[in-house]
Amino acid sequence: MVGGLVGVAAMMISGNNIVEENEIEDPAGHISSGLAASLAERLGIEQVEENGVVTKESGVAGLSRDYASSDLLVDVETLGWGFSYYPFAMRTYHVPYSAKLKVIDTRSMQAVAEAHCHRQPDKTDDSPSHAELLANGAERLKRELRAVADSCMREFENKIYPRNKQMLSEA
After folding, report:
1. Smaller CB count within 10 Å for the chain: N or C?
2. Does 26-170 carry CATH code 3.40.50?
3. Which residues are bridge partners to 73 per DSSP?
4. Using CA atoms, how far apart are residues 20 and 152, in angstroms rounded to an integer?
5. What pTM value is reported for the model?
6. Whole-angstrom Cα distance, residue 115 to residue 47?
């Protein structure tokens, strides 16, 4: 078992190095900004500029306190992402992604909508190799990650709107 744990730790360090060296951003910010703009437009409310505060809070009450200047808060948390080969096509890779969404009414400190998203892209004729993912500053990896993030953003929009239109507009 120890050998397996050492292998996992080495892979995590390698992954962290790839992220740092290639300046790969967490897709949660992109999703959150896109959803906030979409909700503001759909609900006819003003979108408040992000204040640059980054919090370690993940609970509704703590987030509500940290972002009290906003009536509605769109919180997206990346649960995990990476890249791995397909089991029966070990020379081709995919970029899975998982995220959690909370839309929070900061005044009542209540989550008015929540959703999860998981993307595990199917293999295609265009699925990249390991080298293709990491070439040119991991350009393809960034594109693949943005594609799964955009797909999650659309899923989140469909899950929280219009079903929650009345609840969100009352917040």
Report:
1. N
2. yes
3. 104
4. 24
5. 0.82
6. 21
